Amino acid sequence: MNPYRHFIGEIVAALQSMQAAGELPEKLDFSAITAEPPRDAAHGDIATNAAMVLSKAAGKKPRDIAEPLLARLKANPDVVDGAVAGPGFLNLKIADGFWRARLGDCLKAGTAYGDSSMGKGAKVNVEYVSANPTGPLHVAHARGAIVGDALSNLLHKAGYDVTKEYYINDAGAQVDKLGQSTYLRYREALGETVESIPEGLYPGEYLKDVGASIAKRDGARWIGKPEADWLPEMRAFAIATLMAEIKADLETLGVHIDVFSSERALVESGAVDSAFGELTRQGLIYQGRLEPPKGQLPDDWEDREQTLFRATQFGDEVDRPLKKSDGSWTYFANDIAYHHDKYRRGFADMIDVWGADHGGYVKRMKAAVSAITAKQGELDVKLCQLVRVMRNGELVRMSKRAGTFVTLRDLLDEVGPDVVRFTMLTRKNDAPFDFDLVKATEQSRDNPVWYVQYGHARTRSVMRQATAAGIAIDGLDSAPLDRLSDVGELALIRMIAQWPRQVEAAAVAHEPHRIAFYLYDLAAAFHSHWNRGREEPGLRFVIEGDSDLTRARLALVQGIGFVIGSGLKVFGVTPVEEMR
C-alpha cells in the first residue's frame, strides 16, 4: 500500500461527505489533491493541499474548507490529530498503529514490497544505449545504459509492461567509414604499412583485431578490388564483431536488452517509405526552402528546394528536411520510421535515453512522434550528460585500445559492475558527472554505494547473530510490532512505509536517481539507530529475557533489509551479505 495514496482516498471520501451535506458544490475536480510528507516532521505525518486547490471552484476561502474537512478526518481512527496551517494547508498526525501495519505489509511482501499496480500493465518502450556499432562502449554510453536499465526496472516495479530496446545504427555514412577503416586494418594485417589513418575514419586500435580476423578468414581476396566489392563485407564483418563486443560488455554490466532493432533492416523493409506516405497523407510534407540559420552559416549550408516535414505544426522551431540532395533519406527520416514502427508494435508510450550531444534533436523527434501517431503516441527523452573519469581528482587518460576515450570495459575491470551502476545513479541524468575511481570504492559515508551496501550487510549481520544466539528469525511478520515504540524505531518504520510512494513518484517522473537518495537516507537512519544502541543497551536489537521485543526489533531490521534489497534490485545491484 502507498499510504499517501490511501489517504488521498480518505480525504476525497471526506470531501464527498461534505458535498452530500451541502457544504461543498457537487461538481468539483479532486484530481489535483495531493498527500505527502510535510517538509518539517514536527508538523505531522501527512500534508494535503485539498482546501487550497478546491477553494476557487468551491467559492470558499481555503480555511473554510480545511476546518470542516479536518473535523471529518478526525473521525477516522487512523488520524489522531491535525491542524490547519497557513492559508489553508492541512497537516495530519497518523496513528503509530497505522505505520506499524505498513511494516507488517513489508514483512509479508519481502523485496516485492513497493510493487505497484499504478501502471496497470500499460506497454512502455525504453530505448537506450543504441551506440553506433563503430567501436567499444565508453563511459558515457555506460551512463545511458544504466539510466535506461534502472528506469526500465523502476517502471516494471510500478506496474508497467516494459520492453528494453537497442537501436543499431547500421546504415548510413558512419558505418561506411567503419568499413573503410576496417579495410585499412585488413591490409595492414596482410603486411602493408599504414602510416596514418585518414581524418574522418576510425583510428582506434580495436579495429586491428577486426582486420586481422578478416585477413585470416579471406586471405588477400579483397586486395586490389574496387571499394564496391569489399565495402559491404568489411562493414558487415566489423558491425557483427563490434556488436558482439557491445553485447558482452552490456551483459557484464547487468544490462539485458529485450529487442535489438536494425536501422538497415528497417530501411530495406520500406518502413521509411511507409512513414513518409503517412505524413504525406496527413498533408505534412511539402517542397520548400528553409530560412538560413542566424549568424555564421555552416560550411554545408545549401540554399535549395527540399522535401520538408511541417515540424513547426507540432512545436518545433523550423520545418525539417527528410531527403538529402542526392534523394536519399536523412537520418531524421529513418528515425521517424523507427518510432512509427515502435508505435505500430503497440508502444504509445516511448522513452529514449540519449547522450547530451543530441539535445538539439529532441523537439523535432517529439514533433515527429506526435505527427506520425496522430497525437496518440508520446515520447519522453532523457538526456545523459558527459562523464569524466577521475582518480583522486585527476582526469584519467584515454584507453590506448580505444584511442580517444575510456571504455566501459576499463571501468568494469577496475571497480566492478555493482559500483559502476549505483555510482552512475547518484546524480540526475542531465547533470554533469565526475566518476572518481578512488571515491567510488572508498569505505565511508561519503560513498553512497558503500554506505547503502553496509546498511544491508548490517541487517544480515543482525540476523546471523540472532540465529547464532538460538533466536528464531522465521515468521517475523507475526512478531508483536506494537512493542516498537522508541522514537527511532517509529521513524524507521515511517521511512519503510514511504518506499511504495518513492517507487511511484520516481516512476512517474522517470527519475531513477531518486531511489539512490532514498536508500542513502534510509541507510543513514539505520546506522544512526544502530549507534544509539551502542550507547543505550536498552535499544539493542536482542534483549535478553524479552523475546517479544527482540522479535519485534528483528522484524524492523528485516524490513529495512527488504527495502534496501528492493531498491538495489531496481538498480540491478546485488545486495551484499557482509562487508569484506
Automatic annotation (TrEMBL):
- The top EC class is ligase
Q: Name one Pfam family in it.
A: tRNA-synt_1d
The protein's UniProt keywords, in alphabetical order, are: Aminoacyl-tRNA synthetase, ATP-binding, Cytoplasm, Ligase, Nucleotide-binding, Protein biosynthesis
* A GO MF term: arginine-tRNA ligase activity
| UniProt motif ('HIGH' region) ranges | 131-141
Where is the protein situated, by its record's location annotation? Cytoplasm
Tell me which domain of life the UniProt entry assigns to the organism this sequence originates from: Bacteria
According to its UniProt record, which reaction does this protein catalyse?
tRNA(Arg) + L-arginine + ATP = L-arginyl-tRNA(Arg) + AMP + diphosphate
EC assignment: 6.1.1.19
**Domain DALR anticodon binding positions:** 452-579
Could you confirm whether the keyword Nucleotide-binding appears in this record?
A: yes
Q: Which CDD domains match?
A: ArgRS_core
Residue stretches making up the Arginyl tRNA synthetase N-terminal domain: 5-94
Assembly with partners or alone: Monomer.
| Entry's family note | Belongs to the class-I aminoacyl-tRNA synthetase family.
Q: Which NCBIfam families match?
A: argS
**What is the protein name for this chain?**
Arginine--tRNA ligase
Native species of this protein? Answer: Reyranella humidisoli
- From which lineage does this chain's organism come? Bacteria, Pseudomonadati, Pseudomonadota, Alphaproteobacteria, Hyphomicrobiales
